[in-house]
Specification:
single chain, mainly alpha
């Protein structure tokens, strides 16, 4: 009888060892090939560079827009900017001006 219990204990121990090994292999696979693993590292770096370039472009556009807003301040608007906006948005021209439309 004693031998039967030891055989069951050995089999139970092997099942636990195989389960632990399987769990370690799954965690190792995720660490290597997972969404934030070693194989995705270069892709993440490439995306980071792409997003930084995009951010620089957006900041450049934001600076240009801030400049236009500053030129259109209510207290002291830039006359050239006001004239440009009037001509482009309201189609206002002086009688002595000639409008030449360029096709896009």
């Amino acid at each position: 009888m004693r031998r039967g219990k030891s055989l069951a204990a050995i089999q139970n121990g092997r099942v636990r060892q195989h389960g632990a090994l399987a769990a370690l292999l799954v965690m190792g696979g995720i660490a290597i090939a997972g969404p934030s693993g070693l194989l995705a590292w270069s892709e993440n770096l490439r995306l980071l560079d792409q997003r930084q370039a995009q951010l620089a472009e957006i900041e450049k556009e934001r600076t240009a827009l801030q400049n236009r807003v500053a030129l259109l301040d209510q207290d002291h608007a830039d006359p050239d900017m006001v004239g440009e906006l009037l001509r482009s948005q309201l189609n206002v021209v002086h009688p002595d001006e000639v409008v030449i439309k360029l096709e896009d």
